[in-house]
Amino acid sequence: MDGGAFGAGKAGGAFDPQAFIRQPQTLLRFVSWIFSIVVFGSIVNEGYVNRLDESEEHCIFNRNHNACNYGITVGVLAFLSCLLYLALDAYFPQISSVKDRKKAVLSDIGVSAFWAFLWFVGFCFLTNQWQASKEEDNPLNEGGDAARAAITFSFFSIFTWDYMDPSQDSGMPYAPYTNEEDATDAVGTYQQPPPADAFDTETQGYQTQNY
């Protein structure tokens, strides 16, 4: 891509869907989006079971409703965040202001770190509650695959959200955005220094006076 501010091409350029999809960051957002669906979908569909002698369903993770609620909430919000930042990635090349681009990049970094942390907490929480689950609470072993899928993809989500595109590293020396008209004006207003012969001419025309 053409060198622009904060890893994007020149502002105002045409949107290229193929180039956008091939970007590693875009692919990882799609992967994170799918992982979030697997996590909250698994818990919603098969994350609640009941004993043979009761009708009320309880969370498959040690009958702890907080564990199921956490997995569903984080999964749904991560799903929405992926869609939001996919839209931002598509609109990013149209942003001409360097300050706005910097805000978008820093926001992406902060949100990615935040979600990586939430997925780490979710993985530890679900794993702990799954290990503490009792067999008598689920004698038919229903929803076991769904529970393991939620735990596994919570773990994978830590790394998909923790990835950072090198071109958007805030510590890199990004070149400021300039359009062609500004570059032309800059060249037109530049004045060449006077040639060295001009100083010689002035020196030769100077006449000393005797006092």
Automatic annotation (TrEMBL):
Protein's cellular compartments: Membrane
Domain of life: Eukaryota
Start-end of Polar residues biased regions: 201-211
Topology with respect to the bilayer: Multi-pass membrane protein
Chain ranges of the MARVEL domain: 20-173
Region (Disordered): 186-211
Membrane-crossing segments per the record: 27-44, 70-92, 104-126
Keyword vocabulary terms for this entry: Membrane, Transmembrane, Transmembrane helix
Keyword Transmembrane: yes
A Gene Ontology cellular-component term: synaptic vesicle membrane
PANTHER family registered for this protein in UniProt: SYNAPTOGYRIN, SYNAPTOGYRIN-1
Family (UniProt): Belongs to the synaptogyrin family.
Protein name per its UniProtKB record: Synaptogyrin-1 isoform X2
